[in-house]
Design goal:
Butyryl-Coa Dehydrogenase, subunit A, domain 1; 8 strands; 3 domains; Butyryl-CoA Dehydrogenase, subunit A, domain 3; Butyryl-CoA Dehydrogenase, subunit A, domain 2; alpha+beta; four-stranded mixed sheet; four-stranded antiparallel sheet
């Protein structure tokens, strides 16, 4: 075992030992069935210091790398995909700040202290019908005399909805029609607004409203409900960036994209890995009446499982390679988006393929809604909805080969 693999094994034993994963896996079915938040998992992860993984040692954390956290997230997702997906959003916010500091920008390092104090961060960027995602916003950001902003709009798929205390958001400041700006920053859940007395008539508790609707196919435990902002305040010291709309490279958006894509990919890699194990167990536990042997010995079933395994094998290797490159400050230039989005799409595709294979290998028992194969199939389906979709990514992938000067 290499030093790197020994390190991964030590981290797995420290943060996600087998007995903890077993508890998470046993609870995952009930969390999904009852459509509730993973409160018990969160308590265990918090007590283990899991929410502090990215916090550098100088701020009291373990200072893990993106590669190390990615491996842990793959492991967590084998037991509780919805827990892993939601925790991703907190980890992503903290990892972004760590990456910025590593590249010389320490403007957001206050995030580390707040994480160590128990604050939970979440991701409030996705909006209805906004396929610009980070590069545009349908949320209005109205500038205030003190340098802060009041944001009004709807953010969707806000994981950790029941518990987040800090939310990274963006909105469009159109106060100067000739030079609109995208504003990025953190809002606080208990922030009263513009000194609590701005004359807007909006009560403090109504400035940030979390929808009570979350009745979806899979990843139910993430409780990724919509968040409605009604003049929610970003204090001036919490403004992270002001950028023109559109494609304008910036360290903040690069760090967000890198962590979002690779950590999401890690979750679906974990789902795929677990689905393969469930599929293999299904074949070993069933017997062919015709052949009189376990289905694990029937060639057609072995081929089906082998094909899914083959598709999976490239996924963790791809994630590992790009996460290490990111940690080591490798400059892929314009090639970064292709790699990041490609890894996430490949992982989500493999998860769906492997989950379907698990259903076929477990047979009718797996089709029962309480069976893990059924749940994994539904969890994997959520991979269709993370931005950008495969359809949205294809023009970028084609352009990289076709729209050149050569």
């Amino acid at each position: 075992m290499t030093d790197r693999e020994t390190r991964h094994a030590e981290l797995a034993e420290r943060y996600l030992p087998d007995d903890r994963l077993d508890r998470f896996r046993r609870r995952a079915g009930a969390v999904d069935r009852e459509n509730r938040f993973f409160d018990e998992d969160l308590v265990e992860l918090s007590e283990a210091g899991y929410l502090e993984l990215f916090v550098p040692e100088e701020f009291g954390g373990p200072g893990l790398t993106l590669h190390e956290v990615s491996r842990l997230q793959q492991r967590l997702a084998t037991a509780a995909p919805a827990t892993a997906l939601a925790i991703n959003m907190h980890l992503m916010c903290v990892g972004v700040v760590r990456a910025m500091c590593a590249r010389g920008d320490r403007s957001l390092e206050y995030v580390f202290a707040e994480v160590m104090e128990g604050e939970i961060f979440a991701f409030g960027i996705s909006e209805p019908a906004n396929d610009w995602v980070l590069q545009g916003s349908k949320t209005s950001a109205v500038p205030q005399p003190d340098g802060g902003y009041l944001l009004s709009g709807t953010k969707i798929f806000t994981s950790l909805s029941p518990v987040w205390t800090r939310l990274i958001v963006h909105g469009l400041d159109a106060s100067d029609p000739e030079a609109p700006q995208l504003v990025y920053g953190f809002i606080e859940r208990d922030e009263p607004g513009a000194d609590g007395a701005d004359g807007s008539g909006i009560d403090a508790c109504e400035r940030i409203v979390v929808s009570d609707r979350w009745d979806v196919l899979g990843m139910r435990g993430s409780q990724s409900r919509a968040t409605i902002l009604r003049e929610a305040r970003i204090r001036p010291e919490r403004v992270a960036r002001r950028l023109p709309p559109g494609r304008h490279p910036d360290l903040l958006t690069f760090a967000i994209t890198s962590h979002f894509q690779l950590l999401i990919a890690s979750v679906y890699a974990g789902v795929a890995r677990r689905a393969l194990d469930v599929a293999a167990a299904g074949l070993r536990g069933r017997t062919s009446a015709k052949a009189g042997v376990p289905l694990a010995e029937v060639p057609e079933h072995r081929v089906r499982l082998a094909d899914a395994h083959l598709e999976f094998l490239a996924v963790p290797a791809q994630i590992d390679a790009y996460a290490r490159d990111f940690d080591e400050l490798v400059d892929h230039g314009q090639g970064w988006p292709l790699r990041l989005v490609g890894a996430r799409i490949a992982a989500a595709t493999a998860a769906r393929r492997c989950a379907e294979t698990a259903l076929m290998c477990t047979g009718g028992a797996g089709f029962d809604s309480d069976h893990e194969a059924s749940r994994l199939y539904r969890e994997a389906a959520a991979g269709l909805f993370h931005p950008p979709s495969a359809d949205a990514a294809r023009p970028m992938l084609a352009a990289a080969l076709l729209d050149t000067d050569e």
